[in-house]
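dumping this here before i forget
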Amino acid sequence: MFFLNFLKNSENKSPIEPIVLFLVFFLPGFLFQNQQIDGEIFNSPRFNLYYLVSVVPQILLLLYIIRLKGKNSFSRYGIHKLTAKDIGFGFLYALGVLIILSITMIIFNNAAAEALPLVDWQINNPAVLPLVFLTTITIGYNEELFFRSYLLTEFINNDETNNTAVITAVSLLFALGHIYQGVGGFISTFMIGVFFSLIFLKKRRVHSIAIGHGLYNFFVLIISIFMN
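structure:
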């Protein structure tokens, strides 16, 4: 009901396009979270290439749809020319995600292990890191373009009266894709979603949060090399 209410209050915009895109891009992954996940899957060049070949066309399709929305549509959706500042802020936001996870661990105390992904992500072959970097950055762009750039821009009113409802709904939807990480993982992912949403609405630049998202994922995999 919460999702339906925020959709109805978003300047009468039709939810059909976002729903269809979500069904195509993310629903399969959401539905099959109960499947056993191989924490070493990023070591496989085949997996990384498969992911890139599968997801890059999705990103291009979303960009094409946004481009069709009229003059200055890229700017309205926070898509600008990449700058050095975007990269610098990306590192800063990745650090912010690490801080959020640390806070979650403190809150959960004895259940701290659940605040971090339950999947034991591992990289055993450093030679694959350049390909893994491309994959993790692509993951960042794929999720941030849809959940922040696209959904927030689509459903936040011009008068910004429904900001809280939209941020909450989008962040919950984002977190639902991480239920496999446990209760702590779900909550921390929701907090990360709110964090990136607030940054996007203030800065209106998707590059920095997408890079921050991707760098965080990459850092986790790099750390695994030294923990093996």
